[in-house]
Design brief:
Elements: E1 4-12, E2 20-27, E3 44-49, E4 52-57, E5 65-70, H1 78-88, H2 90-95, E6 98-104, H3 108-115, E7 131-136, E8 142-148, H4 156-172, H5 191-201
């Protein structure tokens, strides 16, 4: 069976580069629903980088973490607050070897117009997507999926915390308890050693 072509617009939340994109995601039908611990479906398309269009693909992010988040539309209400929030924290993601890419159903022309609208107007300079967010690891494996209803925006702090937690587990082999923050206690994943954590925090 030939892969289906699904049109989605993509915007990178980079304040310094002002990346906003449209992509045509080439996804095999069985891969339409990404799953945690499965490879992310490959995609490619046209991005707005600065004021220019550039081709990008999932392969461009090999060896890095990727936060891929979907939002309904450019010129709306909650969407700009999310894009601006991720954009303002882009340097923190870069320090974690992580790129942020946002996706909507708008065209790359709409993204370019939106990027050139003043921030004080709420911007960076039919059907709509729900607020989905995917964290993809450097090997292209989906590590986390969140989907919100339209009226509630996402937390950049929580996204950064999750990226840091996945990186900690990969590096140290210990697991992160609820609400884990860097430099807080972690758990050795075996029954006997895990008691050290519970004795420490209780």
């Amino acid at each position: 069976m030939l892969p289906r072509v699904i049109s989605r617009s993509v915007a990178s939340a980079s304040r310094s580069t002002g990346v906003l994109t449209q992509r045509f995601l080439h996804v095999a039908p069985r891969l339409l629903a990404p799953e945690v611990l499965k490879p992310a479906p490959p995609f490619k398309g046209t991005a707005v980088v600065g004021n220019e269009f550039k081709e990008i693909s999932l392969a461009d992010f090999n060896g890095k973490y990727l936060v891929l988040f979907f939002y309904p539309l450019d010129f709306t209400f909650v969407c700009p607050t999310e894009i601006i929030a991720f954009s303002d924290r882009a340097d923190e993601f870069k320090k974690l070897n992580t790129e942020v890419v946002a996706v909507s159903v708008d065209s790359h022309f709409s993204h370019l117009a939106w990027a050139n609208t003043p921030r004080k107007s709420g911007w960076l300079g039919g059907r709509v997507a729900l607020r989905g967010l995917f964290i993809i690891d450097p090997k292209g494996v989906v590590r986390q999926i969140t989907i919100n209803d339209l009226p509630v925006g996402r937390s950049v702090d929580e996204t950064l915390r999750l990226v840091k937690a996945f990186q900690f587990v990969e590096k140290h082999g210990e697991v992160c308890p609820a609400g884990w923050q860097p430099d807080s206690p972690t758990i050795k994943p075996d029954p006997k050693s895990s008691q050290e954590y519970f004795n420490k925090v209780n």
